[in-house]
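Async update (no meeting this week)

Hi team, since we skipped the sync, here's where things stand on the single-chain job. The sequence we agreed to prioritize is pasted below, unchanged from the tracker. I ran it this morning and attached the output directly underneath so nobody has to dig for it. Comments welcome in thread, and please keep replies under the output.
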Amino acid sequence: MAGREPGYRRRFRPRDQRPLRRGHSPTDVARFVADTRTQFPGAESLPTLEMEGLVRVALGEVRLIDNLSSEIALQMQIVFLGKLLQDRDLTETQLEEFIADVERTAAEYL
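Output:
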C-alpha cells in the first residue's frame, strides 16, 4: 500500500508505548532494546549496539549493520518478534494480520 509504513515498523514500541518511527531518537531505540533484553533472558548474550542498529535499520536508517552475521541477525529478529508479540497481546485476527504483514515484508527482500 502506497504511503504506508510496513507493519513491522509500526509495531516496535518502547516502554512508554509510543510507536518508534522515523525521527525517534537513538535514546528511544536504546530504551526499546534495553527493555527487550531484560524481558528475554537469552537476549543478554546478543550484542547491544548491533541490536540497536537492527532496530534503526527497521526504522529506515541504512548501513548500520553491514558487518552483522546472518545468524546473529536472525537471533535478534526472533527476540524482537517475541517482544512485539508480548507487548501487543494480539487477538487471533490481529496476529494473522501481523504474520501476513511480516510475510509481505520478507517477500520484498527475497
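Quick observations from my side:
Confidence is low (pLDDT under 50) at residues 1-19.
The two ends are 18 Å apart (CA to CA).
Reply here if anything looks off.
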